[in-house]
Amino acid sequence: MNLRQRFAELLQIITKNIPEREYHVQLGFLTTLIQEPFYLYGRPGCGTSLIIRRISSAFKDAKVLRLGKKQKQLPDNLNDFTQIIFDNFSPNDEQIKSNLQIAIHDHGKRSIIISGSQKPESALSRSEVTDQVTLTISLPETISSDALCTLLQIQGHESDVDIPSDIAISAEEQAQWLKDISKVTLSPNTLAVIGKVAESCTRNGVYVSIRRWIALSNMIKAIAYLNDRNETKLIDTFFLGTSIWGRSASNSAISESYRQILKAQLYKNTPSLLEQPYDADDLLMRVNHLIHSSNNLYETKPFNGEDCLAYRITITGETVPLYAPHKYIETDIDFNPYNELHQVEKRVRCNYHGTSNCTISIDPQVRSSGLRGSVFQTNSSVSAKFEEFGTLPTYILRENAPEIIEQKKTIRDALIKEIKESMEREATNLVALRNTYKLFNESKDDLFCFTQMFNTVQDEIKAQFDNTANIIKTIKKAGETIAKFSNNMLKTSSGVGRSHLIFQTAPEQQAQTGGEK
């Protein structure tokens, strides 16, 4: 039996019949193994005593000193003990607090476990040992119905376990392993994550001493060592993204930062994966618009950084301007225009239905309040149902305009270039995601792997892979569509393959309520 197999069996035994707290037991055991102090926080009845007994039982002939209500005095032979456990610790007890300070400031080659029902930030800061405690382990206050049923079925069974002597850890083995663990190399990926987490701690006002960072890095090395590796991996840092930082606010902030840090490190060689996903649907829309639109020159004006068609509508006797981006003309796409405040007006919906005539629908609520009167209402107040309001024609300056034909040729060339570049980029991303998933999946059975985080990360990689595959499919469709056309196949007359209703009207058309559309 090699070391990894031995620890796998050991972890299975000490976590038996402790549902939804297995990782907490593993983390406490790992911290005890490398002889670092930790605080086990949990409300009465959460299982702190059981977890401590399980952890202690993994060590052969452990000499344990338990300090609490019954035993408060530190013995003279303190150095003879290999584990010191503070049960139901409270900083209100001055003698126990003093004992903790003495033990933790000179713990030498001993493991120190502190358990209590007071929040870590309060108990440790009041005891003036916050910087000396490597991490806190907070037990969940609730349990799922499935886990509860499991516990009820095993009720009455012996809660303690027997550790076979051939896998229990002797003091000599522990001392040798600590030497071997110190020789494990922290990989560049691991160091990058530690550095970024340290920056996150600084931003969120969480002080972490150098001594504590050394202890945390030793835990990372220990995880690699017990998995038969001489160099650490990203997965060994998972516990940094859990609730080990004391305060609830700090735990939440750093856990969220860790997820982003891990993602950035996973995709460091393909940074485009960290950006907003490429909008291939927009690309396909622009290709279709180029090919199927007429060569008409429309009356437009620049607005919000793009060419727009200007309209005016009258509601409740008040005339307001709307601006429809030119890219939507002659398409079949629903869109929201801009209002005069340069905002997307979500209470108005437009669609050209493949022509140059703009059909306008409005949120029924604005019929009484108008668009200006309720301009600051939130998007959540917009109703799901829109009512048809009117159809506005568009002013055509010239049909089959030469400048539009030349402009479309330029757009076509730009689209071909964009298709080529985006296809190459997304294909590279797809390969990178596949390799990342495969490499990451090799660690799914690693000891001390936080399964919940592992599954979440794997699901995110798979979802991004599937999304990238769909993006490539859409880009390919856009490429096939535009490849069927060449310069001489661009339309040279208005209305080829479609029926256009052309209105020569004033540049800004108006629609009103009632019969004044």
Class computed from helices, strands and strand pairing:
alpha/beta
Total domain count: 4
Listing every helix as H and every strand as E from the N terminus to the C terminus, the arrangement reads HHEHEEHEHEHHHHHHEEEEEEHEEHHE
Q: Which spans of ≥5 residues are poorly predicted at pLDDT below 50?
A: 490-517
> What is the typical, i.e. mean, pLDDT?
88
CATH hierarchy: architecture of the largest domain: 3-Layer(aba) Sandwich
Beta strand count: 14
Terminal Cα span: 85 Å
CATH class of the largest domain, named Alpha Beta
Shape: elongated
What proportion strand? 5-15%
Please give the count of helices.
14
Largest sheet, strands/sense/barrel: 5 strands, parallel
CATH topology title of the largest domain: Rossmann fold
Helix content: 40-55%
Strand order of the largest sheet: 2-3-4-1-5
Fourth-tier CATH superfamily name of the largest domain: P-loop containing nucleotide triphosphate hydrolases
If you compute it from the alpha carbons, what radius of gyration comes out, rounded to the nearest whole angstrom? Answer: 33 Å
